[in-house]
Structures are given as structure tokens and as C-alpha cells.
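Reviewers of the previous submission asked for a worked example of the structure-prediction workflow described in the proposal, so we include one complete record here. The input consisted solely of the amino acid sequence. No template or homolog information was supplied to the procedure at any stage.
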Amino acid sequence: MKKATTLIITLIVCVQSLFAQKIQGLVFDQDTKAPLWGASVSVKGSQKGNVTDAKGHFILSAPSDAVLQVRFVGYDPVEVKASQSNNISLKKSNYLQDEVVVRATRADENSAMAYSNMSAEEVGKSNLGQDMPMLLNFTPSVVTTSDAGAGIGYTGIRIRGSDATRVNVTVNGIPINDSESQGTFWVNMPDFASSVNSVQIQRGVGTSTNGAGAFGGSVNMQTNTFESKAYGEVHASGGSFGTLKTTIKGGSGLLGGKFTLDGRLSRIVSDGFIDRASSNLLSAYFSAGYFGKKSFARFNYFTGNEKTYQSWYGTPESRITGSVADMQAFIDRNYLSPQDADNLLKSGRTYNYYTYDNQTDNYAQDHFQLITNHRLTEAWNLDLNAHYTYGRGYYEEFKPAADLINYGFANSLRSVDVIRRKWLDNDFYGSTFALNYTGSQKIKFTFGGAWNRYVGRHFGVLQDPFPGREWYRSRSQKTDLNLYAKGNINLSAAWNAYVDVQYRTVGYRMFGTADKFLNLNSDNSYSFFNPKFGLTHQLSEKSKVYGSVSAGSKEPSRQDFVDNAAGNPRPEYLQDYEVGYERSGRRYGLQINGYFMNYQDQLVLTGAVNSTGDAIRTNVESSYRLGVETMLNIQISKRLVWSGNVTLSQNRIRNFKERMTDYDTYDQIVINHGNTDIAYSPSVIAGNTVTYSVGSFEASLLSKYVGKQYLDNTSDEARSLEAYTTQDIRLKYTLKKGPVFTLLLNNVLNEQYSSNGYTYSYRYGGATTTENFYYPQAGFNFLLGASIRF
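From that input alone, the workflow returned the following C-alpha cells.
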């Protein structure tokens, strides 16, 4: 018996040593023999991976017959057998890679912050015409929405409950957020996903970046990368709601050993789920690259041209519930015309308030980027970039029975039907830079920053009945300068520190008039200091813990100044505390991240509306977000992989005061609600992806759960969005040396839900009335695509 037991134990040990053993090694520069700190070492075809420490060492568990993939920015990647991994030399690439231009603003394994990376392959799996936010929908703590209900046209993204004005977006490190509204209009960048090589989504304050402050997160995109061989691609897709997408891409490969040319043309059309919510989107991308042994330069040009029928108004709650009595009450108290009343009563969930045939948004935007990197020495390299964006366009509106006095006709009491256009014409230009040092086994250092200037011109022009008459005009100028220094410091074999300090100044001036002759005369300047500090402790080859403390700050938007003309809004401040644990094995990866985001003077919705009906924001003294994010990836078998994430959070305003207009007296009523939930901040967000693959076939089930969201900050159940769950199925089949076919079945269980909305309340006749509006999303729908690369 004893001998048998000994034999069994011996066999177990032998089996374990066959399937998993500790692999240790050193990664170093082939020419200089210097160790490479931060090189990625992963087991091919598994969830297992690690990075080298400051001395170039790595350790991980892997079968003796496993293949290791080793990558490091600026070097040619290699694959080696685990049994031959003691000493791995990497050769400096003859061509500096595009990845060098984004590393200055990206987090890495030692940044002690929460982030997710997506490759071009991951982004492309569902890229059948929907906007970028929809392709990021299944990453942690993300909620997306679409005005037209089908993911094309006006779409939005929230991270940890924070809206687009608090999500910093960059392309190759260059700011994309609109300087005035501070949001990102993805409709101006149709099919941009087809030109993206990688995306990093940082949650919370994140690392220092360029552009407006990141209060909820940041989306850092890198465009096409170096292609050594000529190629061509054709993508075509179509599906529900008359959606059609056509994309043609091509590249020259390396010309003369130094140059590359790449390009893309795209067109997307869709009728939208909502009535008349059509989109006609054109875009192009062109890139010319120069690759030298010590220098790299790329010129990028990308443009978008959109014509989108407006679906901004939303759907009244009574139309969602289908109550005829409530719809009639809505008609009566809002004085809807017989035609508008008929439109409401005879439509369904696809109701669109607008019926004028050219109620459209028309905008074009051209982006020019010059991206360069120069290897000054073995230890130092410099990114130096320039950019220019030109945007211009208008949205056209039909305004029935408009008072001519509002259009500059003094003493006129006439009311006529008016067709008008509100124009925006703007320029945005500047430069970004980053000086990087990697020559020490103790510290990696970056000093960088940006100078950007925005000039915007807002004006309104009548089309009918007084064509060409201008009734308002204003001009804005905004200058943004930021400097940052960040470093990864190796404290010992197991400890790493991350230090990041940023100084940012903003000057913002407005003058002229806005709609309804509101006088704009504002000249404000701000100075922000944003330090960040993090520690990472490697517990073992499989696990680590980290923690960080960060500060963020942000200036008000243009609309905040417009709505608070009597008293300037204050800037917002945030302290972000993050702590996390990560563990990875051969077949799994686990990450748990906790956060506490403590705000001072956060700008939140008050419940009041301005003269044009837009919701007004005001500063609240104290508010916070407290949550935990859990992400787990498991390779269940060779063919089956499961990936899931859950965010649980509490999002509160301390002592919220609602402001409501009493139309009997035109006084502002103030209602003290005490501690309340922050609007649009669900306490539960979850994503789930199960993928089964065999041969050339891949099938995925994609699930998303979003908990209840309040439409304002009162925590009133009657002003909320119901929780919802969607289930999507994605099928992909690849023919040998042929096309790839993808079928995306969205919302297969036909969930009837709304992902966004708004509310306002007022007092009239001694009673309080609340109007809720929702943005219904499509039920079951599909997209079918085919692509071929040659």
C-alpha cells in the first residue's frame, strides 16, 4: 500500500511537471545586452502572461512544450519554446513601430490603475457599421446608448456613470473631445473603428493625458500600424433598418525600404430604429509613413461627413406605456398641434417628434496629424507631433408659429413658421510632445505635454421666410497648455512605484450673443495641478496587488457658462483612490479593482431648464462614487472561453437641492432631497462573453446587464430608467484563403428597453408636473457582413 501511494504521488508530480512548470528567463537587447524592463511574455494560446522586471527577468508557469510570445515596443517580436527561454534576445526593429506614439499617455502593468486593452482584432469582430461606443459596450463599467436606437448616428458612452464630457478621448495622443462642450461626437468619425489598431480604456482619473480632464475614464486610440507588405481589404455589411456599410482599405507595403501608404474609404447608411432617424455617413482615412532606423514620421488625414435626421427629442413616457389617456394629457398640457398629436397617437416605440422633412444635422470634420518619433540615443527618444482640425456645419430646424421678436424684428408681435439653421464653424490646432527615458534598471521616465488652441464661431441664419437673416453670433477662444512628468520606479524585486504630476492651464473667452439674444461676455482662466501616485507589489509569479491616489480637475463647459450667466460655474475637482488585486494562471485571469472617487464642486443636473429647454447643471459641494469592478477570463477548454465583468457601485450626492420653476409666480422653488443617487449611474453593470470555436467557425454569446438609472438627482422612482438585459449572438466563419463572414444577432430575446432619457418638472396651477422622455432601443435586429483581405 505504501509503495502504491508513493508511486501515485510520483506519477502526479511527473504529470504536473509535464503540464506546468516554473519557467524563468531573461529578456535583453541583442546588441547592447541590456535587460529590457516591461517586455511582455505570454504563453501562446492561453490566458497566461507576465512582464519582465527592471532586471529583465520573468517567471511564469507553463508546460515544458509551450511556446512563449515575447514583445517589446521598438523591437521585433519573437516566439520561443519554453524549454529554451532562459535567455531571450530581442532585436531592435529596423522600423520604429507606431506603438511608440501612444505609450506616453497609456497605462501599463506598473501604473497601479484600472484599464482594459482591445486589439484591432477584438474591435473588428463586431465592426459591421455601429459606432465605436457600441464596440466597447462589453468592457467593464461601460454603458452605451444610441439616439436612433440602432447604434448608428448619435451614440454615447458612459464610464462608471460619468458622461461623455468627463471621458477623455485621444487619437494617437491627440485630443478629440470638443473643446467647448467637452464631449465626443462619434457621428463625426463614422467607421473610425476600421482604422484603429488598438484601444485602451482607462477607468477613473487614469494617467496624465492631453485635452479635457478625465473624470470617469479615457479612451485612447491608436490608428493603423506598420504594414510591411502590400494589402487590400473590402468589407461590406447590411441588415435591419436599411443599414448598409461599405469599406475599402488598402496599403502599399514598404516602398524603397522606408515609406508606406495606407488608405480607407467608407460609407454607412441607415434608416434607424426610430422613425425618420436616418444617417448618411461618409468617411476617409489616409496615412503616409516614413520609417527610418532612428526616426519615424507619419502623416494622418481622416475626415467624416454626416447627415443625420434629428432624433434628439426623445419619446414621452406615455407613448412608451401606450396609455391613450396619458398621451392625450401630454398633448393638452404641451399644446401640440393636431398634426403633432396625430403623430404621437399613431406611432409606437419608434415615435419621433420631428416631422419636417429636412430636420437634419449636417457636419463635416477634417483632421490632420503629423506624428513623429526620434531615437536620440539608446536611452532617450522624443515624440513630437502637430495637429489641425477644421469643423463646420449646421443643424436645420422647423419652428412653427415662432415669435419674430426672437429673431431681431423689434416691436413685432407676428408669429410665423420659421426654418432656421444654427451653425458652428471651428478650428482646433496645436502640438503634443513626449520625451522618454528607458536607459536605467531603476526608472523609466517621460516628460510630456501639449499646447492646443480652439476658435469657435456660433451663429444662426434664417432660411425662411427671411433667407440669410442672421439673428445671433458669438465667438469663443480656448487655449489649453499642459505639462506632465511621469515615471515608473523600481524599488525592489517585488515593488514598483508610479509617480505622475501634471500642471494644466486653461484660458477660455466668449463674447457675442447666443439664441434668444443672451449676451455672452466671459473671460476665465484656470490653473490645475494633478498629482498621481501608485504602488505595485508582486506577490508571486501569478499575482500582484496595487493601489493609487490621483487628483483630477476640469473646467466648466460652454453650456455651463451660457446657463449660469448670472454667476460663473466653478471648476470641478476629484480625488480618485484605487486598489486592486490581479491573478493569472495558465487558463484564467482575475482582476478585482476597488475605487472611491470623491468630488468637489461636481457639476450636476439641477432639475431646471434654460430658455431653450436644455437641462441646467450647477455645482454641488460634495459627491462621490464608491465601487468594485471584477473581471474574470477562463479558458474552459481548448474550444471554449468565458469572459465576464461585474461592477457594483454606490454613487451619491451629499445634500442635493432640486430647483423647480413655479409658472404661477415664475419663482424658483428649492427642494432639499438630502443624500441622493447621481443621475445615470447604475449600481450594477455586468458584461458576459462566451466564445466557442472549432476550426474556421466561432460562435459567441454576448450579454449585458445595466441596473436601474435615475434620470435626475432626486432618487425619485418615477423618474428612472428600468434595468435591462440584452443578449447578442455573433457567428463568424472564415473560408480558407477567402472571405470572412460575420452574422451579428442583436437583442435576440427582443428586450423592450430604453438606455437613456431625461426629465424635468415644474409647478403650474398649484400642482407639480413631471415630464419623462426616453430613448427606446431596437428589439431583435441583425447585421450580416463579409470581408476579404488580399
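The chain has seven helices and 42 strands. We consider this example representative of the routine output the project will generate in years two and three.
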